[in-house]
Each structure stands twice: as C-alpha cells, then as structure tokens.
Write a structure and sequence with these properties.
The protein is of the alpha+beta class and 402 residues long. It has helices at residues 7-17, 22-31, 38-47, 53-60, 109-124, 156-163, 168-187, 226-230, 252-268, 278-287, 293-296, 302-311, 323-330, 371-379, and strands at residues 68-69, 72-80, 84-91, 97-103, 134-140, 143-148, 153-155, 190-191, 200-203, 208-210, 217-218, 234-235, 381-382, 387-388. Strands 1, 2, 3, 4, 5, 6 and 14 form a seven-stranded antiparallel β-sheet that branches. The protein has a three-stranded antiparallel β-sheet with strand order 7-9-10.
Length: 402
C-alpha cells in the first residue's frame, strides 16, 4: 500500500496490520480525538500502549504485513544474522514475550530454509540453562520462524565494546558457563561451529546463554554439508574460527578452540590473532602461535596461560578433547575457585574436581597450511553473525522480508 496521506487511511492500515484488536482500537478512537498530523496520531496510539515506536514507523510507510506472525505480534528488532532477523515479540493472548527468529528466504531460497530447520532441530535437542531454549517453530505463509526464549541482557561483544576487557576471574567464569553448555550439546551430538562473544549473552541474573545454533550440526550427520552445497565458502567468524574449520573438518575440539579464542578476547581485549581482513585472520590461525597470556600480562597465572595456549593448538589432538576437560582446567581460575552458580554441570562432569590434578605439559603442533585451506580463505568468506542492532530492517510490501 502507498504511504497514508490522511488520518482515515492511516487508521485503515493500522486495522489491516492486526496489531490492535478491533474493540480496543474502536474504544481508543471514541475517547481520543484524532489529530490531523499522522505522526501525532500514531504517537497517541504509542502513548496508549497499543503500538510500539517500531510498529508506528513501519505503519507510517504504508506497510502492514509481517508485523503479526501466527499468534505473535512483532514489537521491535533485537538482532540480525546472515539468515535471520531476531525480533522481540509478544503472544497476543497470553502476553508472553519471546524472541522470534525469522528466516529470510529471499537470501538463500530453499537452502536457507533447510539450514534454518536444522537450527530448530539443534535447539530442540538441547535443554540447558546455558543455552537459549526454543519453545516452538512456526510458519505464516512463506515465512518460517523460531519461537525462542527471550534473554534480557548484553552480549559479551557489547561488554567488550563498553569495557575494553573483562577482569580475569569474571572472564573465566563466563568461559566456564559456556563450556558447561557446550558439554551438554556435545553429549547430544552437536557442534556449535560459531562460538564468539556476539553469540554469548550475559543475562540480568549473571547467566551466560549460548545463542545462534544456525551453524550447528550433528556430528553423526552423513548428509552433504550445507556449507558446501550453498556455496558460501567458509562459515564462521574469522577472529574465532579454528584452523581445521577452514577446510570443514571439525568436531567439538573446534568449539573448544573458538571458546578459548573468545576467552582470550575477554581477558586481553582482542582475539589471539587480530588482523585487518578475514583471509589474513584465517591465515594467522593456520600459521601463527599465540603469545602466552602471562607474557602479555604478568598478572595472569602461568597455569591459566598454559591452558589457553594448549586449547589454541593448531592440531586438535593437542588440545583438551572435551568441554569437560576445559572445565577442569579453568575452574581454579574462575569465581570462587569453581564453576559459577549460573552454570549447571552436565552429568558427565559431576565428579570433576575444582583444582587441577597436575600441570599439563603444553605441546604446540605446527600445522602445514593445506592448499584447500588457502583456497577457502582467499576464495570467499561467508560470515554468519548475530549482533546487537537498533536499526529498522527493511520490509517488502506484499511479503515478509524479515
């Protein structure tokens, strides 16, 4: 529809959107004189709690489709990613607030829907306090969406931008909680494949939540990998990707690498191999050895520095092999010498001691740079990122383009 030019045409667009029940809108119109100014008319609806500012801006453009998906009304955007936008939404009857991740089918057709459905399966397979929970899936016409737990808080990426770096024990505590969630996912056969500060949310109660299972895969999958079939090159985030992920040969040890790269960024204010371009960063992950943390900051305990160096080994065999081993190695350096209260140990870790048994010897393996890795590095880079967004996403008239 064209942008409204009169108050009457604006009210007609509001009705068509389905955001306000007819009885509630009629009652408001009977008691509130409508100003001639269209913006002021919408402001009155916002002040009455019938619309949000985001909805009013959307409607003022003459757009009304896509603001109601199934029983949910979209309140505002909260994040964006390579294959989906995430909105704060509210159930129109139950008034329960959720996060709706809406699949942008116009960016990948059938393939993007297939990856989106895989994320739904991945989330349905896990149930852990340190992983964002999925409530259900939905479809409204050609629009697919996930109904997820809405987490109020800030991503670790946002905290880094605000503070520059995180105190050591606090940062280790965040890593421990993440490792607990990863161990739970690993027990259910899942690899996340995109652990990074932007995908870790610290909620208002101090609990870390792992977001964005869009790249997750079951390590028992025998089907062709969607990364190759979609022709998107390497999927992941260049600052935190493991060396083997460049050639798409990975398992839970790749998540361990990304987790400790994240921990490095939290403690030092930058990832272990900062570079100017994605190919350069990927090359550094392949060839460079990290500077030990205690060399960068003498206040860092040598044991923690050794653990971080080991987890950044080029060869996965030289790292800790499970998140459980990571928890055991990092626990002495976290809050209160143990796993934070916000984390829940998976069943396989109930016997883990809070102090390490002995200092492990660090072995750094120098990996050959495989031609396939360089080809993937230089030939293309598909980055899937969820980041905080206060902007207004574009919507196409006559279809949902979330």
């Amino acid at each position: 529809m064209p942008a409204p030019s009169t108050t009457e045409s604006l009210i007609e667009i509001v009705r068509k959107s389905g955001l306000i029940k007819r009885e509630a809108l009629d009652a408001h119109l009977e008691t509130t004189p409508l100003p001639a100014d269209l913006g002021r008319t919408l402001e009155s609806l916002v002040e009455a709690g019938l619309l949000t500012s985001f909805q009013s801006r959307f409607l003022l453009q003459g757009k009304h489709k896509g603001l109601v998906l199934g029983p949910y009304k979209v309140l505002r955007p909260v994040a964006k990613g390579g294959m989906g936008l995430v909105y704060l939404a509210e159930h129109m009857e139950l008034r329960r607030r959720v996060a709706l991740k809406v699949c942008m089918t116009d960016r990948g057709g059938k393939g993007i829907v297939e990856r989106f459905q895989r994320e739904a399966r991945a989330l349905a397979a896990v149930d852990h306090p340190n992983i964002v929970r999925v409530h259900d899936t939905g479809r409204d016409g050609n629009t697919h969406f996930l109904i997820m737990e809405y987490v109020e808080g800030k991503s670790l990426e946002q905290l880094l931008r605000m503070r520059g770096r995180i105190p050591m024990r606090q940062a280790v505590g965040y890593a421990l909680q993440t490792a607990c969630g990863l161990e739970h996912a690993h027990e259910r056969g899942l690899i996340h494949r995109d652990i990074k500060p932007a995908n870790l949310i610290l909620d208002n109660h101090g609990t870390i939540k792992i977001l964005d299972m869009g790249l997750a895969r079951f390590f028992t999958d025998v089907e062709d990998d969607l990364t190759a079939r979609l022709g998107n090159g390497v999927l992941g985030s260049p600052d935190y990707i493991s060396p083997e992920q460049a050639i798409n040969q990975l398992d839970i040890r790749s998540d361990i690498y990304s987790l400790v790269a994240t921990l490095h960024a939290l403690i030092c204010g930058e990832p272990p191999f900062p570079g100017k371009t994605a190919p350069q960063k990927l090359l550094y992950h392949q060839l460079r050895n990290p500077t030990p943390l205690d060399k960068m900051d003498p206040k860092i305990p040598p044991g923690l520095a050794m653990a971080v160096t080991r987890m950044l080994a080029k060869n996965p065999k030289d790292r800790f092999q499970t998140p459980g081993e990571v928890i055991e190695a990092l626990s002495p350096y976290g809050p209160d010498e143990g796993i934070p209260a916000g984390a829940v140990k998976p069943s396989s870790l109930l016997g883990v001691r809070s102090r390490p048994r002995s200092r492990r010897r660090v072995v750094l393996a120098t990996a050959a740079v495989l031609g396939a890795a360089l080809a993937a590095c230089l030939g293309g880079w598909g980055v899937y990122a969820i980041a905080s967004s206060n902007g207004t996403p574009s919507h196409g008239e006559g279809r949902s383009s979330h």
